[in-house]
């Protein structure tokens, strides 16, 4: 199922992965899905439906159309929509689609110049739309196999960053987008230097500095050695040593160290791990949590190149991983309430990465996870323990997790954990959970995700059967979203029928478009993951996320 493939894809750190084979037959996408989405756009069924169809076309990628046009031209045509939300979706869809034509249109929007004004049919490009154009350009740069185009994207982003008139929200968006444009090479040394300058500049807004730190981590992750990495890590460590460092910048620096440090015995890596351990015991609660998760990531990362296994270095790295696991285990068993859920999740990360590398958590760690899970009653700690047990392959936790599935408080997390655990005996119970959760979207999604992780052959037929009987809009939307994520050819016709059904609500028809885009998505990992897993949420500006709604992270 696609969820497992996407989890594996998120583990891969290559900035330019090879394109995966299409999951749906190309003739089905061209012959059925794309025409249906184009008809949906022509129907002018309202902003929600239009935005969904635009994003679906973006996910599918550039395709030629009859008459000499292409899907990129369709997206560009919708930039001048009267509804700013529709224009924003068209803008982001261009970034998701990628390519030179998308880049030139997005640069015009980013600049806010005469061409950008012409594209949107307004006398001024709104700052919010310029920020979304920056995010979209980050996606173009990330997936770009054309060196000159990648360099062009970076230079244009830097041009806006260097403009003293650029407002805070746009500056933050540009900094975040630069972090999405790929790793070292292709002229990115200039980007690294500029982001370092932003991070060190004390008159810069702390929200921008925090995102500069995480962008540096995103750019340099996968570079376990090298002068540039060492310089950036030295800067981060110097900042963390200051008592007057603001909370947002401190949090960003901790997250960045999680991207950059490794479990090697080299002095810089030792200093980084020491700084992270120190951060787990002082400062704000979120910073402590970030430090714990960063330590798990660091302990999972080797500095040895592929095929390079010097015995002493490998032994030293194994010792660091073992010590980290033991200290996290002690925090879970004996730590304070505010630390324990994060120590559990950190152990889960360690376990998941160990499994990917052919290893496992120590038997004592798995036993502690099982024991704590069986005794835990806290609504905050129990879900974290459930996920940690599943990710960390604590096999003995299967029975406890199964017993918790029907519970409303944390049962959906237990269901998801059973999927991570690979507990195939849970399939019948998870099907019961799927049926019982038809009016609870998150519960339904987690049960379906667990069955997908277990590669259950009956998941898609079961979801389709529930959808056929479902009269609830919210549940129908969740079912469509879940079906789209499977990438199964059997979901296409039912979703096309939902899209064309005049009796269906506008919301249901919109989500049918989203789901079709998910099913036909050419990316192994959803486009939003590039940003959602690489930023400091607590240092968000409105273009990224707002508690009042809107922002990049609300897009689909």
The SSE order reads: HHHHHHHHHHHHHHHHHHHHHHHHHHHHH
Helical content stands at: 55-70%
The CA-CA distance between the termini, in Å, is: 20 Å
- Report the biggest beta sheet as strand number plus sense, adding barrel if it closes: none
Mean pLDDT: 90
What value does the Rg take, in angstroms?
24 Å
Which structural class matches the secondary elements? mainly alpha
* Residue windows where pLDDT falls under 50 for at least 5 positions: 1-18
The geometry reads as globular
Q: Say how many strands there are.
A: 0
- Beta-strand content: under 5%
> What's the tally of helices?
29
How would you describe what is shown here?
By secondary structure, this protein is mainly alpha-helical. 66% of the residues lie in helices and 0% in strands. The model is unreliable at 1-18 (pLDDT under 50).
């Amino acid at each position: 199922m696609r969820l497992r493939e996407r989890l594996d894809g998120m583990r891969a750190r290559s900035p330019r992965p090879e394109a995966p084979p299409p999951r749906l037959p190309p003739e089905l996408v061209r012959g059925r899905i794309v025409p249906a989405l184009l008809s949906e756009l022509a129907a002018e069924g309202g902003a929600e439906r239009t935005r969904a169809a635009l994003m679906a076309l973006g996910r599918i990628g550039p395709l030629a159309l009859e008459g000499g046009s292409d899907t990129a031209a369709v997206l560009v045509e919708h930039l001048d929509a009267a509804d700013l939300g529709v224009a924003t979706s068209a803008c982001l869809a261009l970034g998701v689609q990628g390519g030179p034509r998308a880049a030139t249109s997005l640069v015009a929007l980013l600049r806010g110049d005469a061409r950008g004004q012409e594209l949107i049919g307004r006398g001024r490009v709104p700052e919010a739309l310029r920020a979304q154009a920056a995010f979209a350009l980050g996606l173009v740069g990330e997936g770009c196999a054309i060196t000159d185009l990648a360099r062009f994207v970076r230079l244009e982003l830097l041009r806006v960053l260097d403009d003293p008139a650029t407002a805070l929200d746009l500056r933050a968006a540009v900094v975040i987008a630069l972090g999405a444009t790929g790793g070292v090479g292709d002229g990115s040394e200039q980007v690294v230097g500029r982001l370092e300058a932003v991070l060190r500049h004390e008159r810069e807004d702390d929200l921008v500095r925090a995102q500069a730190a995480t962008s540096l981590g995103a750019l340099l992750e996968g570079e376990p050695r090298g002068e540039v990495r060492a310089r950036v890590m030295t800067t981060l460590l110097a900042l963390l040593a200051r008592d007057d460092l603001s909370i947002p910048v401190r949090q960003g620096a901790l997250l960045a160290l999680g991207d950059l440090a490794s479990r090697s015995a080299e002095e810089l890596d030792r200093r980084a791990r020491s700084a992270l351990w120190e951060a787990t015991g002082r400062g704000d609660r979120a910073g402590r949590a970030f430090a714990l998760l960063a330590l798990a990531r660091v302990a999972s990362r080797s500095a040895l190149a592929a095929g390079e296994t010097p015995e002493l270095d490998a032994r030293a790295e194994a010792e660091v991983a073992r010590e980290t696991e033991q200290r996290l285990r002690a925090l879970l068993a004996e730590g304070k309430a505010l630390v324990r859920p994060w120590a559990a999740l950190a152990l889960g990360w360690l376990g998941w990465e160990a499994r990917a590398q052919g290893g496992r958590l120590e038997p004592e760690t798995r036993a502690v996870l099982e024991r704590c899970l069986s005794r835990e009653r806290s609504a905050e700690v129990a879900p974290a323990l459930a996920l940690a047990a599943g990710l960390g392959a604590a096999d003995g936790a299967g029975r406890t997790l199964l017993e918790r599935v029907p519970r409303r408080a944390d049962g959906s997390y237990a269901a998801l954990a059973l999927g991570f655990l690979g507990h195939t005996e849970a399939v019948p119970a998870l099907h019961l959970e799927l049926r019982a959760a038809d009016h609870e979207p998150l519960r339904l999604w987690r049960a379906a995700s667990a069955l997908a992780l277990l590669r259950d052959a009956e998941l898609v037929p079961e979801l389709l059967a529930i959808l056929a009987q479902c009269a609830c809009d919210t549940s129908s939307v969740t079912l469509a979203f879940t079906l789209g994520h499977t990438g199964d050819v059997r979901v296409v016709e039912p979703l096309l029928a939902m899209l064309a059904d005049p009796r269906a609500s506008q919301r249901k028809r919109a989500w049918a478009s989203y789901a079709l885009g998910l099913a036909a998505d050419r990316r192994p990992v959803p486009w939003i993951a590039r940003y959602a897993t690489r930023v400091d949420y607590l240092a968000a500006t409105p273009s990224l996320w707002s508690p009042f709604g809107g922002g990049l992270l609300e897009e689909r």
